[in-house]
Amino acid sequence: MRNYISYCVFLLAFALILGCQKDDRMNNMVDDTIYFRDFKENKITVFDWGKFDYNVTVVKAGIGQKEAKVNFKIDEAYLADYNAREGTNYRLLPADCYTMGNSVLTFGDKDTQRDVPFIFDTEKIKALQGKYKEQYVLPCRIESEGGLLQPLKPEMGVVLLIPIVKDPFLEFISPGLQLDLVKLTPTSAEQIKGEAGVATNYPNQWSLDYEIEEYPAALDAYNATIKEEDKDKRLKLLPKAAYQLPQMPYKVGEKKNKATFDFTIIKKGLVSGTTNLFGEYALPLRIKSVSKNSINPEASTILIPVSFQPPDIARTGWKVIQASSEWIGGGEKENILDGKTETFWHNVWVGGEPPLPHFLIIDLGKEHEMMAIELIRRANNDLKTVLFEVSTDNKTYIPVGKVDFGTNNPKHTLMTNIPTTKARYLKCIVTESNRPPSSAIAEVYVKGL
């Protein structure tokens, strides 16, 4: 019995405590209010296809959940006041440039928003102000009947609708040079797939067909932006045999704003006979056509970069086993394999300089599949032309390629692709000099497997 009485006393005390606590759940809540979702200035992109639909949204919010009627009206006095206050020179859009739907909005107690539909006449707006310009506006105000509901702030109950006529475009999502590099090597997959994306700049309601084409002019324009001294960074046009596009036309689905198309890079398209065509390439593509509306001329092309490069053959165990002559005292033959571009081989120049040609023979230690040869010349630019020959036995040599720096080329490094050849020995033959008969080579690399 004593325990029962104690329990009852505890319940009574707990109830009294709860009753004394303040209910603050409604703090910071406001009574019902109305406002434009996009107030002050609402710049509307009106796409140029004749009649353009747009909804202006009025919001009702708060805790009262009241029913209300709200009047939507064009308020010229607000336009004059706005121009004076903001220093603008907007003009009233003539009534024949648009059609407005219901101007009385009925809100039920639980309704949170209503739309006022507009249809803008793009041809008439263009005749007034042209495309991509903002001059003519609609000053709009909302008021509830009987003053039942008020905007949360006065400025939220008015808005300038500013229609701007723009072209409806299909465009590349990321135009220009793409960031995703397609990388190929002699041992990579034979085919690499990728994709590119297009999009409409408008809320698309149709099923669109579009076509893509190769567009070399886009690559020419890109290369023209690269300075002459950096011309080695210019990209070569990817051969037609090195890529494939799926059958066209491609599609952007109805009520879809984006789509992708696939492309395939084909490695064998970068091989001529037994020679790998190593280099830095680009596949330039353009949106050729679209079944409805227009193509954005500023975003109609992309460049897909494709890099095809061989790996270096490690120079471990390499030796320069012969030189036609060498300058002992800074121009030794071993310098072409020391990894330092500031050191070099130089032909004898003291005590009677031998005439061209000069040569060096490198033993790679074992046979490799040679695919390309890279040569770095001394910084004084005297070296002009070097022929390359390879051999399996250091007896019979076959020519495979050359590098030619020319007379005024500031570059010090050149690479030449050669027929894929199994060989152990490489002969470098200097045939021309810009300061004959003197020549110097800083480094020699062989690329392949």
Automatic annotation (TrEMBL):
Transmembrane segments: none
Record domain F5/8 type C: where: 308-449
Pfam families: BT_3987-like_N (PF08522), F5_F8_type_C (PF00754)
InterPro entries according to UniProt: BT_3987-like_N, FA58C, Galactose-bd-like_sf
Protein name according to UniProt: Uncharacterized protein DUF1735
Lineage, highest ranks first: Bacteria, Pseudomonadati, Bacteroidota, Sphingobacteriia, Sphingobacteriales
